[in-house]
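Entry under discussion copied across for reference:
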Amino acid sequence: MSRAVMSLRRASPAAGGKPFRGRRASRPHTHEDTVRSAAAWVVERTLASLAPSSVYLESALQQCEPRDHGLLRELALGTLRWLRRLDHVIACASHRPFDDIEPRLHAPLRVAAYQLLFLDRVPAHAVVNEAVEQARGVTHRGGVSFTNAVLRRIARQPRLRDWPVTSDDKITRLAIETSHPDFLVRRWLERFGRARTRALLEANNQPKALHLLTFRDRGGSAPLAEALIDRGLTVEPSDLAPLGLVVRRGNPLRSPAYRRGDFYLQDEASQAAALIPPPQPGERVLDAAAAPGGKSFALLAVEPSLEPFLADVSPSRIGTLRANLKRLGRRLPLVVADAGQPAFRGRFDRVVLDLPCTGTGTLRKHPELKWRISESEIGRLARQSLRLLEGVAPLVRPGGLLVAITCSLEREENEDVVARFRRRHPELVPLELAGRLSYPHERWIVGPGLWQVLPAGDHDGFTVHVLEHRR
C-alpha cells in the first residue's frame, strides 16, 4: 500500500464533516433510502477532504444495519470508481457542464446515476424518488425539479452505451469512458501500449474482493477455507499467493478464525510481492517501514523460522501494527524509527523497504486516489524514496538483499529511483530473478532484479526491485 495513502489515515471524520446520522425525510423511507443517503455522504466527504474513503465509509457503516453493508460499500466505492463517467452522463442528461450544476446536488446525483446505470436491485422509480428527497433537503424547488428531470432521463436510458463519449481527443475519450484522469491514461498508453492499458483501466473499475493471508504454522489455507465454508462463506484458493484465499461471499471478519488470528487481510499481489524472492530459513530480516505489518506477515507465513525486526516512523501506525500483532498472536521486535536515519546495529540478510508512492496500482481499492494524484506528487514522493533507500543501504550485509516495494506502476517511483540510488551504491546490484521464483511469479519478471504485476483479475498492482550486496 502506498505510504501516501496510509499517511492520510491520520485524518478523521471530525476533520471533514460530521459522521452520517441519516436524516428526517418528508415521506416514509426504507432502509435502502438510508443506505443511499449514507453513500452520498461518504462520496461527498471523501471528495471534499484528503482522508481515504475508508474513514467515512466505516463511520457510515456503523449507522446502518449489517444487511445493508454490502450495498453501502458498492454504492460509495462504485460511485468513486466511475465518477468521471457518471459526471459525463449527468452532464449529457442535464444539457449543461457538470461543474455548472449546484455543488450540493453532486453527490445525490452521482450515487443515483450509479445505481441506475450499474445496479438493478432496486426499481428505478425508487432510486429517483430517494434522490429527489435528498435534493429537497439541501436545495430550492428548482433544484429539486432539476434532480427529478435529470434522473428520469437517465432512468429511461439506463445503459452506458446510451450516453456515448464523443470527444475528438482519443486519450480524453478513453479516460472518460473508463473514468480515469487524462494524464494517467496518457502515461500508461506510452508505457504499456493500448491493449495492456485498456485491461488495466478496466481492472481498476472492478469491485475488490477480500483476500486473506493464512499461516503455515497454523495449518495453512486448507483448514481455514474449510472452517469458513462451514460458516456459509464462499472462498477459493488464490491463484497468485501460495497461502492466500479469495472470499467470494460472506464476511470472514465475523468468524472465530478472525478473532483467533488465523488470517490477515492482505491483497494476494501484496502477499506475492513480499516473497520476491522467497525467504530462506533463519533469515535475519529488517522491515524498515513495516506498518501495518503485511510484508513481515507474508514472509513469516511461508517461513516461520525467520528472525524479523519491525520499524516504522509513525507512532500512530506503530499502534495499528501492535494491534495486528496482538490479534495474530505474534511477538516481534518493534521500534519507532525513521528508515532514512535508522538506529540499528549490525546488518541483515534482507532489508525490506515499502517506498512512498502514489498508489497507482491500488486504484480499485482506493478509487478516490484517481482524483487526487498529480504528476508533481509523483516527483515529490520519488525524492522521499531516495532518502529512505540511502538510509537503509548500510544495513544490508555482504551477500544480503535490499528489497524495495511499491504499489505504484510509475517509472519515476520505481526504476528511476533505483537507477539514481545505484549510481551512489554500485555495491548493490540487481539480483537475477530467473530460476529463483516459482510459477506463477516468474511470469512477472520484467528485467534484472525487477518484478511487476499490473492490476488484473482480483488483485492490485505492485513493483519490486531486488538488489544484492556484492562483496
Remarks:
- The chain has a mean pLDDT of 91.
